[in-house]
Amino acid sequence: RKQFGARLREVRLAQGLTQEELAEIASVSLNFLNLIERGQRGPSFDSLERLARALKRPVAELFLPPQKKSRK
Question: I need a labelling partner for 37 at 20 to 30 A (CA). Which of 1, 24, 63, 72 fits?
């Protein structure tokens, strides 16, 4: 769950979306999205599809590991 939440957050931020914006576009509650991103809840199949569609990404891409941030 934590890895999925981190990846979801990463994709959302890369698109310049706030949690509020993504929640609205995907028709999920802000609280639910927050719990997913913190790894405290897993999405249902339905909400997973809605999140992927809202992010214009294939569902499988949301299961990739989060990118490691390079340190300078």
Answer: 72
CA torsion, points 51, 53, 63, 18, in degrees to nearest 10? -50
pLDDT in tens, 8-55: 999 999 999 999 999 999 999 999 999 999 999 999 999 999 999 999
Contact 26, 67 (CB under 8 A): no
C-alpha to C-alpha distance for 72 and 63, rounded to whole angstroms: 27
Neighbour count for residue 64 (Cβ, 10 Å): 13
Cβ count within 10 A of residue 47: 18
> What's the per-residue H, E or C state across 36-61?
HHCCCCCCCHHHHHHHHHHHCCCHHH
